[in-house]
Amino acid sequence: MFFVETFRLGLGNLRRHALRSILTCLGVILGVAAVIVVVSIGEGNKQSALRDITALGATNIIVRSSKPPDAASSTQARTFISRYGITYEDARRLQLALGDAKLVVALKAVGSEISRGAFRTNSQTFGTVPELAVAANLRVARGGRYLTAQDIETHAPVAVLGAETARQLFPARDALGQDFRIDQQVFRVVGLLEEQGFAGGAGSALVGRDLNRDLHIPLSTAERQFGDVVQRRTSGTFSAEEIQLSEVYVAAPSTEAVNQVSQRVERIMTVGHPGLTDVQIVVPWELLENARRAMLVWNVMLVSIAAISLLVGGIGIMNIMLASVTERTREIGIRRALGATRRHITLQFLVETGSLSTVGGVLGIALGIGVSIGLGEIIPVIQKWPMFRGAFGGGFSLQPVITLWSIIVSFGVAAAVGLIFGMYPAIIASRKDPVVALRHD
Prior knowledge:
Largest sheet: 11 strands, mixed
Helix content: 40-55%
Strand content: 15-25%
Number of domains: 2
């Protein structure tokens, strides 16, 4: 009965000063909401980055030809053709030395232009083998197919288009079964790749291009019809490069073996490329681990910043309660004269501060969840407004992910802040002398 009466008195006092109670709660409300929103944005970005990197294959090691800084000044000056990158011999050595690897898949960049009718665009064509679909987690849209072993054997003039390339070449019709040209060679579309969600994200940055613009043809066809010299004409300039292979995907047997296999790949490639000046080795698994660690640090920093709002809210509660103690000195004296002990007075004030922080925590959770969900819905709409067009990067997206731990932690901290900062005013109130309190005006 004592506790029920104490709670009734405490909550009744808060209701009598409703506006003051709401304003006192604001610091806690905004603090809890800030923690939830910040964590949800950080978690959403983390999961997006991890999906992008994982999509490249967590067990893959990607060896990529990379133009050395001195290629234009030395080799090109003498022969007008810069020669660099992965060779067929490199691929053969990788195949022989990495017997435990699940896959070793080569890609060869060919062609300078793709066209259909009056439409022309720069080529992003790669000759490859059917195993690339497994190594790079490629998915073919329903109705089509990927490259087959028969395509390789027969040097078939067939192609599988990326989603963006298909939209550009065939904007008003189904691309399957249609013909187009790579330079002057005619190819037929046999399959369409599903949209790669990380076209503008981490995956694109790793491979150096928009993967939705890729176009795949059989490796044997690429070797026979295009050779090793790639000619580029852009903005009135001409360049020619001799690159036998542009990329090689090496699939390790497991994620635990990725680091070991990547070290072996590096040693093998160093044989033909001292210093690896014209070859780059990318290990998505290492980037995945780095991304996890970076996001953890980022989340801790953001939560720490948002937690300052909770601290400010706690200071606000203490300030208001200290003012309330002075304002209610006579009430405290009357209660003491009627038999209330220091414990009773302390508990009454703690009920008030605890109620303020608890209600603020609940409202903050509702506000934080609402803002997090709203951001995911509003940002895509804002990006379409003419005044904001171009203000966001092409690959910008915001998909907040609300986490249970952020709700529990923020609410727990809010409740603790209310009790801790309310303790001092409660003790001050309980220590007032009853006689002096009764004389207070």
